[in-house]
Amino acid sequence: MTELSYNNVDYKGLVNLLARTFNLPVNEGSLLLTEPLGKGFFSAFNLPGGISVLVSETVFNSGITMHRTAVAGHPNFILQFNQSSQPEKELNYNSSGEQHVYNLGKQAILLTSSLTNSKFIFPPKAHIRSVKIMFGYDFLCEFAGKELADKFLTNYFSIQLKNSNPEPIGTDYRVIMDELIKERIEHPFRQKFVHNRALQLLEKLVTGFIDKLENNNQFIKLKDDEINRLMKVESMLIKDFSGVPPVIATLSKVAAMSPTKLKRDFKAMYGLPIYEYYQKNRMLRAKTLLMAGKYAIKEVGIMVGYTNLGHFAGSFKKEFGVLPSEISIDHHLVQDEDLIVSRSRKN
Fold first, then answer.
1. Measured at the alpha carbon of residue 291, what is the angle toward residues 285 and 296, in degrees to the nearest 5?
2. Every domain of the chain and the residues it spans
3. What is the fold of 224-346?
């Protein structure tokens, strides 16, 4: 397994280090992996406000371990969203038991600080999709306000220490990740697009955590094997929308839990009851298909399990406030620009 040490303060520096290590070229902040090393890519973006984003989809044939050495002074925070197809038996996020050692073959959200030494393991043959956002304390204060920023950081790290369960990647996060994890982002406002999506991910994490904190009843401790079984249930739910969803009895067997425990723990982990979560993902899948511009509305409806076009249109409007016929690439671009302008005015 290759070992690499770094302490870069932005991700373009890390991509350049990877390029030198593996003797590979960098093109506009992107690095393509080649055999026999593996396959996939890293793309880095240095964005306004001092934030840096790294988007990657990789398979390292022999694995790689990255050691991030601590940097003294004003800290940066690193927010990671990692998805993996690694076999379930290997899904231990901190498999060594050591502090600040993270196996990235786990689907989870991770927040760390540049003030600590950390080790990140890319296991051999694991297909890992990841979005990483590096930002400073001053940026978070400007973004969320100092009071909210301090409340988030103080409580997030203390709860993370008490409860070692990583936060799973739910629906809203996955949709944004899917938009970002592309070898080449084809968008007329590429930098703004990445900036906007990075802010959305950060905003969802902060506001979602504060909501849970204020409710004071949504942090539960689950065992590693329970987390893995709930992830299997979630994967089963969103695997195929063309037919009827699996019933609770089937999901309970997969999770090896009683229906009551499954419903409670699934909602605590993913934020929604099982079938609300299914329906939300179903509609988000429909929106993605419509945005691709390759399918007729009726075709999309059938692909997500609707035989009645009226029912599909009604469900879509209930979720997004517009009919399927009103969705277009131009409409999406306007929404992107509105969100960017809105965020700029807020700051």
1. 85
2. 2-215, 224-346
3. Arc Repressor Mutant, subunit A (1.10.10)
